[in-house]
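Issue 218. Parser rejects a valid record. Input:
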Amino acid sequence: MSAIYLTFAVSCRPVENRNADARGLEEIKTMNTASLIEQNRVQIKELVRFAWNKPEGLLMIKTGQPLTSVLYSGKQASPEAVIAPYRVRISESGNEIVILSNDPLYTSDYSSSLDFLLYDIEKKMARKINVPMGDNRVEKSEIVDFLLGKNSRFYLLEHLLTKEKTTVNRLRYIEAGGQIIWQTEGGVVAENPGEKGLLFGKSTALLKEIKDNVFLQTETLVILKIDSKTAKTEEWLSVDSIVPKIFVDDALNLHYVTFIKEANNRAYVSYDPYKGKKEIRYAGAEAYPLLAFPAALDVHNNIYFGEGLSFSCLTPELLVKWRFSLSNIILDAGRLFTSHFDEAGKSLVIYEWQANGRVAETIKVPLDLPRLRLGRLFGLVKSGDFVIETYQQDNRILWAYSTESKTLDRLPETLHVNRFQLQAAATWQVDNAGNLYLPVSSAEGFHIIKVSIAREK
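Output the parser choked on:
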């Protein structure tokens, strides 16, 4: 199939009317976290825990710049060294997880092999995969993306900076045991230097594997189709505007969010390249800010958006189905707690979850503090009492909340805290059924928390 270029004809849409296509949005009450929990539509449980620095676990890496929450921008150093964020990918079926154990972004080690941990959820079995760098030219490398494919194989997309200061795109297809099936880099298929590929521009994301092809997004607005058997690469589609993230469904339809200047609005575009059919849906007032952070597409073509520590689910018509947010997750002796900051009520709502994923108890902690702008569950002390972190203007304060006396006191500096760290929504994963997978780290290990949100009855 030759390359297809997408253009827009939108002069029929009034420029000044940003919300012209809300289509009943105002009539639908969006389900937020509290509403979802009250209606028993949420299940939260620990899926798996990997111990640190164990043969079957992950290497603990610390950094001063966490990608964790709205508390820190990620651009400024945190008050203390924290566990680095780990990059996780879930298979579309939700049966397998792969984790990058030693991201060069945090280790600054560009010569050692890359270590991945592959976990089979159904069999509850984990195995390590060692992928060699295998290139003496490399001065620095960046892991752009990785994607689980068929038979526990996966694709690995890298940007390589050579010692000659040239940048090379490299895509590798890797066996479950770590062997390289093929690789293509800098536009040349390594096993056949005479055959030119098309890894031009800057590759930005691996989109999806469909049958024997994998689809790749580039900074040049081109989508590439690569044959997983031969590594043969061709330009598949091209869009004519900047698109932060593109989705390809099983029917090879294209879906993405873009800003259309003529309409002065964000739009969700679905395109069938074989029929040449395009549908443009404009954002209403509620959907507009969410569309800036596209994250995933499920099998029903619901689209998901993640920002800070919040995730939202929208229908293909851009109606907001639900918004779900957490300020942190902590685990203790088989118990799981989540927290949600109620800004209007100046309180922290703590939920305890049973092993079956259902809510066992709700604890409301009043935070009658001056100039309070944020609060979250931070960790636990040895007694089992909660440690709460608050931000009052620019002042960060830790508090101990006694579950027996229901009192909130300043945390003594000498008291040891078992800290938990929920990674930002940008690192959360979604499977085809719409289940969320949240990475959490603690002194004990790296946890994957599964969140399932049922449809409205």
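Fixed in the parser; the record now loads. The longest helix spans residues 33-38.
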